[in-house]
Design brief:
Layout lengths: L1 E5 L10 E5 L3 E5 L7 E6 L2 E3 L16 E5 L21 H11 L5 H7 L1 H15 L2 E2 L1 H4 L10 H9 L6 H14 L3 E9 L6 E11 L7 E4 L11 E2 L9 E3 L2 E9 L2 E8 L9 E7 L2 E10 L6 H18 L7 E5 L2 E6 L2 E5 L5 E5 L3 H11 L5 H15 L1
Antiparallel strand pairs: 1-3, 2-6, 4-5, 4-15, 7-17, 8-9, 8-16, 9-10, 10-11, 12-13, 13-14, 14-16, 15-16, 17-18, 18-19, 19-20
Length: 386
């Protein structure tokens, strides 16, 4: 089955060396393992094994000159000794766990049961940290790419960010506590625009036994709040949160896909979906991860470069994206709407009337943001839309 994937690129202000990175538009063919049925839906037509390439026709993406987020002065100089390190101390780590996440006696819990500690960490980060575009939009100077120190500050204040901001910080936290980790790349398909390598997740090694691997992917807008064992051949366990079911499928060696159960395949004109039918359920692909590839912190920073440039094609910064929890409610603000979901799955949608209403809603559900940050975000959204 053919899967169309494109990659986009943009700018991050980070010192030491610069070179040209060119946007790649590629076709990636994924062979599904036997026993796993897969269909693609384009509009109202059921087209087995095909994905629309409309995304490649939406705009012409040109090569972009960026500054390499690597300490070396040459393209080949990104050796392990020259890689960036995350500016987070062990003392800051413990303070984050106790103060921001409200995990009391974290070191005692860690020494008693590492797997239980990791589960607790994931739940608390999800509960207290939103997935949001505000990290890029809340500056008075306009849309910007935050430095690592700014990413750390956002996480310490429970203000969150995108996958790079959240997952690289969580990786640093885990490493400061003695966990063995590495980062892996991925691609998201949620908006029907498959952009290659604009997602990042963390793998924890040797958690339950020597050789075990568990996926930790907190930096997304979905409800899965648990480490996922990667020791499955075709399909992972099914995870449930707020009446929503999630599952991972392995489609080839080193490639897994994160899926959400849907009632039936979408039939919206112009949309393309990658759908699995398994166990009498329909599963829509949300994220594809390549588990056998490792990414370092320099790669993670370049991912944010891609995200900022991607907005020229996808318009990701033309509106506020703010997804997280407020007490018992799951809150999703985007496209001028605010959706809340209770723990038993009841949904309420409120249309956001104007900027004053938006400000009120953000202050209500996400009080960790200041009024100045909200106003800057609104101004930057208004400017990008004109």
């Amino acid at each position: 089955m053919q899967l169309v994937v494109s990659s986009v690129c943009s700018k991050y202000s980070c010192a030491r060396s610069s070179s040209h990175i060119f946007v790649r538009e590629i076709l990636s063919c994924i062979s599904l393992r036997r026993g796993l049925k897969s269909l693609c839906f384009h509009g109202n037509k059921h087209l087995p094994g095909l994905v629309s390439s409309d995304v490649l026709k939406k705009g012409s993406i040109q090569p972009t000159t960026i500054q390499r987020c690597c300490m070396s002065s040459s393209d080949e100089g990104c050796s392990e000794s020259n890689l960036l390190s995350y500016p987070l101390t062990r003392g800051e780590t413990v303070s984050y766990l106790q103060t921001t996440l409200d995990i009391q006696n974290p070191e005692k819990l860690l020494s008693r049961d590492r797997a239980e500690f990791l589960q607790r960490l994931i739940q608390q980060v999800k509960q207290k940290t939103p997935f949001t575009s505000m990290t890029f939009l809340s500056s008075q100077e306009g849309p910007h790419l935050p430095s690592l120190s700014q990413c750390k500050d956002a996480m310490m204040l429970a203000q969150g960010g995108n996958c790079m901001v959240i997952n690289t910080f969580v990786k640093a936290v885990l490493e400061n506590l003695g966990f063995k980790t590495h980062q892996i790349p991925g691609s998201a398909y949620r908006w029907r625009d498959p952009l290659r390598d604009h997602h990042l997740a963390v793998v924890v090694r040797d958690l339950t036994q020597t050789g075990s691997t568990h996926l930790v992917d907190i930096g997304n807008q979905f409800h899965l709040c648990a480490p996922v064992s990667l020791d499955f051949r075709r399909a992972s366990s099914t995870y449930k949160n707020r009446n929503i079911l999630y599952k991972y499928f392995q489609v080839s060696n080193g490639i897994i896909q994160f899926c959400q159960e849907i009632q039936q395949p979408g039939t919206k004109p112009g949309n393309s979906q990658l759908i699995y039918y398994e166990d009498d359920k329909w599963w829509e692909v949300l994220i594809t991860l390549r588990t056998m590839e490792e990414k370092n912190l320099s790669d993670a920073l370049k991912l944010n470069i891609d995200v900022l440039e991607a907005q020229k094609v996808t318009g990701v910064f033309n509106d506020l994206l703010l997804v997280g929890y407020y007490k018992d409610l799951w809150v999703n603000m985007k496209l001028k709407k605010c959706m809340t979901m209770t723990s038993d799955g009841r949904v309420e949608i409120t249309k956001i009337a104007d900027n004053d209403h938006l400000t009120e809603m953000v202050l209500k559900y996400f009080p960790q943001f200041s009024l100045e940050q909200i106003r800057n975000t609104i101004n930057n959204i208004d400017n990008s839309s004109t």
